Amino acid sequence: MDIIIVDDEPLARDRLQRILHDEADYRVVGQAANAQEAMASVMALDPDIVLLDIHMPGDNGLQAAQQLGALDDPPAVIFCTAYDQHALDAFSVNAQGYLLKPVRKDKLLDILFRAQRVTRAQRQSLQQQGHLTTANRDAGRSHISARTRRGVELIAIESIFYFAADQKYVTVYHEGGETLIDDTLKELADELGDRFVRVHRNALVALKRVEAMAKNAAGQFEIRLAGTDHRPVVSRRHASNLRELLTRL
């Protein structure tokens, strides 16, 4: 399971990373010092779990948890804090656990194990819902609409390579170039169904364009798509599902 540690104190982040260093089931993929960095890291690294402090400069951990919870397929959140008075507030934002500093290894591993079971169950539920939705969906729309300087532009679904999201916008990469659209990735995934597959929290790729998945020089999985040199990154949490899907094509 991939983990991001969020705390404004570097020593606190490093201590949690040392605790998890030798644990084969967990990998710390990033650190962040505030809510803004946390959101950017989650969008880029697509972790399964976020270890989150509460008292930080700017937005506090509770506000950060609310922002994370609003994401499509959000990571599990476990609070690690020096203050016990926020426990009820923490669970109101669907935190999977609440640990007091200094964090003990046995308690951290216990909560991580429970959070791991929850994230797997959630993913299985989402997959089942996706299959049901697809089974009951008609062919769906043939074009994506976008407001541009030239007015409303129609982009044929058949011409699209993939969709990529940052924190505010979704960009569609297609045979005619790149275009910003108003749709969210969740809306697109729900409507386009099995024509597109999620390879990352921030990316949907056209399944018919997929040629192969391979590691790049940095050790990340990438998708090779027919007709473009773009190589969307595949997150570790989606790599196994995508590999299984490709074997069935």
Q: What can you see in these coordinates?
A:
GO terms for molecular function: DNA binding; phosphorelay response regulator activity. Residues 124-143 are annotated as: Disordered. By secondary structure, the chain is of the alpha/beta class. It folds into 2 domains: 2-133, Response regulator (Rossmann fold); 143-248, LytTr DNA-binding domain (OB fold (Dihydrolipoamide Acetyltransferase, E2P)), CATH 2.40.50. 36% of the residues lie in helices and 30% in strands. It has helices spanning 10-20, 35-45, 61-69, 87-92, 105-135, 185-192, 236-248, and strands at residues 2-6, 27-32, 49-52, 76-81, 97-100, 143-148, 151-156, 160-165, 170-174, 177-181, 196-200, 203-206, 210-215, 221-225, 233-234. The relative contact order is 0.10.
Quick tags:
single chain; 249 residues; alpha/beta; Rossmann fold; OB fold (Dihydrolipoamide Acetyltransferase, E2P); 2 domains; 5-stranded parallel sheet; 5-stranded antiparallel sheet; 7 helices; globular; two-component regulatory system; Sig_transdc_resp-reg_receiver
